[in-house]
């Protein structure tokens, strides 16, 4: 009898902790009927970039719900490996295997191209990012190398911070720092001018997510097995680790809520969670809108008190953060 009661309590706890709560968005709009392969929301949520089969690309105005710019498959690389919408400089970067295109937004004119290759002759572009001021472009490759192009000086330097596919690049300009993550299981903070490493943290399996807070003081690192940690950006010290009952859990994306201890994560599919990084506890979880088992979350941004999410079905939903965290 006692054993049966203990088992029942354990099952109840497990179900209670893993079942997402019913949370409703304040708004919802579907921008594409086709499956979205890649997508990005602008930092202010006013523009939306979608790549669908073809590939074909469309830039939307999320206020008027109209297309600002579109590119056909004849104008784009055969296989799009990375995209960056940089609204402050009105640029759109589209990367193929070894080529980065620079498009003016919203005119849709091709500003130029940059041919880039990894150290290994078979390496292909795996990641792409741009500095806040638009002057630096960082390109990660499948062999673990990273190239940094300076648009002002027209110079490009290449470094080898990893030994495998680069999955995340963050540029910390005021510290001359790059924070990169890779499938080699290493998060590396290094000098963008010399390539010298400030510190590294190694994990048991390949990394699935590396995010940096807006305040540039914390890094969230998740591997694809069971370890998710918050690090101090200055020295890589582990500040805390996420805790949960399930044996394995990994995340595709993560986003720090500015000026709070809260962190938002997404699973490989459609579940979102809010965590208290000071304790490592999961405070709430919920699902984005889905119409098939294959729906995934492609991007999310925070604009003031609103979380915006983009799914692979082309759906953008708005969530009011103050309402969601009021009782946490």
From TrEMBL:
InterPro entries: WD40/YVTN_repeat-like_dom_sf, WD40_repeat_CS, WD40_repeat_dom_sf, WD40_rpt, WDR55/POC1
Transmembrane segments: none
PROSITE patterns xref list: PROKAR_LIPOPROTEIN (PS51257), WD_REPEATS_1 (PS00678), WD_REPEATS_2 (PS50082), WD_REPEATS_REGION (PS50294)
Keyword list, A-Z: Repeat, Signal, WD repeat
First and last residue of the signal peptide: 1-23
Keyword Zinc-finger in annotation: no
Repeat region (WD), residues: 159-200
PANTHER family named in the record: F-BOX_WD REPEAT-CONTAINING PROTEIN 12, WD REPEAT-CONTAINING PROTEIN 55
Protein name from the UniProt record: Uncharacterized protein
């Amino acid at each position: 009898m006692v054993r049966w009661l203990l088992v029942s309590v354990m099952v109840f706890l497990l179900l209670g902790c893993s079942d997402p709560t019913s949370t409703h968005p304040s708004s919802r709009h579907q921008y594409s009927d086709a499956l979205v392969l890649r997508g990005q929301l602008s930092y202010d949520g006013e523009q939306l970039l979608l790549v669908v089969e073809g590939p074909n690309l469309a830039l939307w105005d999320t206020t008027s719900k109209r297309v600002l710019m579109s590119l056909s498959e004849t104008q784009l690389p055969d296989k799009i490996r990375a995209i960056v919408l940089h609204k402050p400089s009105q640029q759109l970067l589209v990367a193929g295997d070894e080529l980065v295109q620079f498009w003016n937004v919203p005119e849709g004119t091709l500003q130029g191209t940059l041919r880039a290759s990894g150290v290994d002759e078979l390496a292909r572009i795996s990641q792409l990012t741009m500095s806040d001021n638009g002057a630096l472009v960082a390109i990660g490759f499948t062999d673990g190398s990273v190239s940094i192009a300076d648009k002002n000086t027209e110079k490009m330097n290449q470094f080898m911070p990893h030994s495998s596919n680069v999955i995340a690049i963050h540029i910390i300009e005021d510290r001359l720092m790059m924070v990169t993550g890779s499938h080699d299981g290493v998060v590396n903070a290094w000098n963008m001018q010399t390539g010298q490493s400030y510190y590294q943290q190694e994990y048991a399996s390949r990394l699935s997510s590396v995010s940096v807070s807006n305040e540039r003081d914390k890094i969230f690192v998740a591997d694809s097995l069971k370890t998710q940690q918050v690090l101090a950006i200055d020295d890589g010290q582990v500040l805390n680790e996420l805790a949960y009952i399930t044996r394995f859990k990994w995340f595709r994306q993560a986003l720090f809520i500015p000026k709070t201890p809260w962190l938002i994560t997404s699973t490989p599919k459609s579940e979102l969670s809010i965590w208290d990084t000071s304790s490592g506890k999961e405070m709430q979880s919920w699902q984005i809108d889905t119409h098939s088992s294959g729906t995934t979350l492609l991007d999310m941004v925070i604009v003031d008190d609103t979380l915006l999410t983009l799914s692979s079905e082309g759906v953008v939903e708005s969530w009011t953060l103050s309402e969601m965290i009021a009782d946490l």
